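can u do me a favor
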């Protein structure tokens, strides 16, 4: 076990993937000599050479087009989109080519392309650098969409994505790049490693199921701790929140969430992306349908607002936080907003 930041865990995962399979190539803007804007690819070009860690022109559509051709020839390209808002020029390639070619060729062609996307806000960035575009791709049949929240998951899941024969959108929560945690670098080779498509119960609980992913998992854990302390620290008002890290957005691990909601009878869903058409809307509908007779209250969504991402000085008002999550928990419990330890609602 070694302590790493999430960014360092991704770097170690890429290094291991390059060493494990000569077909793995890394492509992107400023990923070679510079090592990426977040230094996730730092040192990889020096170690593996410019033929396998390739600096590309500022043309996301061209980068993905080249990745499609390489996948046709048997390679396993890993494409870095420098920032979430830069993925849109490549949207046509991803949705009309990458996602469709396996089906279009009746299974004769695989597209083992991994597309790494730093996503979400919280870093004080300028326009086009704090998007949450995951719903566009989760809506697209033929793509796997996953996201990590811890250094351990980052390390294991990225290798799983690269080894997968399906195209994978791998969303990395950029404001958690500096989060540290223990990483077992050999976990990928063990039989007990959690599959890429499985959700994880992060905090067990009995009263409310809180489903989230990526950057908000840490916030959800804080919310569970605050709720467990109760209003003003009293045990009588404590709420036991079960936190589920969804990890995979397409496909969704339905069974893990259904089992939790059947136990708690209440559901809160949180994500940074805008509310309308977001992942949370689909999850709320799906689990209302599947868990209708278990639910004690309507599911609640805690999301970004239906506006363009605001200027950095206002982003703290846009992003779901501890207070807004606890307020949603209160609503599922039939309470008025109350005081929790460390949080005023």
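np, heres the sequence
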């Amino acid at each position: 076990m070694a302590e790493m930041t999430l960014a360092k865990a991704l770097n170690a995962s890429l290094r291991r993937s390059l060493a494990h399979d000569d077909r793995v190539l890394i492509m992107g803007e400023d990923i070679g000599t510079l090592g990426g804007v977040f230094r996730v690819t730092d040192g990889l070009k020096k170690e593996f050479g410019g033929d396998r860690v390739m600096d590309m022109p500022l043309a996301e559509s061209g980068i993905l087009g080249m990745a499609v051709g390489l996948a046709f020839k048997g390679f396993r390209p890993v494409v870095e989109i420098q920032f979430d808002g830069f993925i849109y020029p490549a949207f046509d390639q991803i949705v009309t080519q990458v996602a469709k070619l396996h089906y279009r060729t009746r299974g004769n062609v695989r597209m083992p392309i991994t597309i790494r996307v730093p996503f979400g806000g919280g870093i004080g960035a300028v326009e086009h650098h704090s998007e949450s575009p995951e719903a566009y791709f989760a809506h697209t049949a033929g793509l796997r969409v996953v996201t990590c929240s811890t250094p351990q998951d980052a390390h294991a899941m990225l290798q799983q994505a690269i080894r997968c024969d399906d195209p994978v959108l791998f969303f990395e929560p950029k404001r958690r790049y500096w989060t540290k945690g223990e990483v077992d670098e050999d976990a990928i080779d063990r039989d007990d490693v959690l599959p890429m498509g499985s959700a994880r119960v992060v905090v067990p609980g009995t009263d409310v199921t809180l489903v989230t992913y990526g950057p908000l998992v840490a916030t959800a854990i804080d919310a569970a701790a605050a709720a467990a302390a109760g209003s003003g620290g009293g045990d009588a008002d404590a709420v036991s929140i079960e936190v589920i890290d969804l990890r995979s957005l397409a496909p969704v691990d339905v069974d893990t969430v259904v089992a939790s909601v059947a136990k708690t009878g209440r559901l809160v869903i949180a994500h940074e992306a805008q509310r309308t058409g977001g992942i949370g809307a689909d999850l709320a509908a799906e689990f209302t349908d599947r868990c209708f007779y278990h639910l004690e209250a309507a599911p609640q969504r805690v999301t970004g607002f239906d506006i363009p991402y605001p200027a950095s000085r206002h982003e703290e008002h846009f992003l779901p936080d501890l207070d807004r999550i606890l307020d949603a928990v209160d609503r599922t419990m039939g309470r008025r907003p109350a005081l929790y330890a460390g949080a005023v609602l």
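The longest strand covers residues 267-274. hope that helps!!
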